[in-house]
Amino acid sequence: MNLTNEEKQSLIDLANEARKRAYAPYSNYPVGAALRTRNGHFYSGVNVENAAYPQTMCAERVAIFKAVSEGEIEFDVIAVVTNNGGSPCGGCRQVMAEFGLDTIVLIADGDGKLKKEMTVADLLPEAFTPKHLL
Ligand code: THU
């Protein structure tokens, strides 16, 4: 997947815009995510925390679940934005891996600056995937 800098930046900007809607009153660590599906559609997500802390849902999974619930399961690229350019958690890596190891992951900071770019396979080596269940 070859992405232009403009394509990358606009996805990061979409994630950062979504991040303003993060519901993170406990951690004060707002996260925004945005993905582009193979069909060219965009879905964003934010972390949604809960007073019962473990019920919190990460931004990446919200974006992925929104896409899947609309019938889209192939993703070209997903951008994740946090204040400090934090990396996706292990649970989100596993959920990304379910839908493709080649998906590009863009990690950006609160200024919308791209800090790292890799594939899901890079983020989760030796991933357990649907193929293992065949
Ligand atoms: N968080 C995400 O949304 N994505 C990640 O990949 C890492 C963590 C959220 C969960 C929680 O609301 C806050 O960041 C602090 O852990």
What does the model show?
The chain is an alpha+beta fold. It is built from four helices and five strands. It has one domain (5-133): Cytidine Deaminase, domain 2 (3-Layer(aba) Sandwich). The protein has a five-stranded mixed β-sheet. The radius of gyration is 14 Å and the shape is globular. The mean pLDDT is 98. Bound molecules: tetrahydrodeoxyuridine. The site of tetrahydrodeoxyuridine has 13 residues, from helix 2.
Number of strands: 5
Whole-number mean pLDDT: 98
Spatial shape: globular
Number of domains: 1
Give the biggest sheet: 5 strands, mixed
What descriptive keywords fit this protein?
binds tetrahydrodeoxyuridine; 5-stranded mixed β-sheet; 134 residues; 4 helices; globular; alpha+beta; Cytidine Deaminase, domain 2
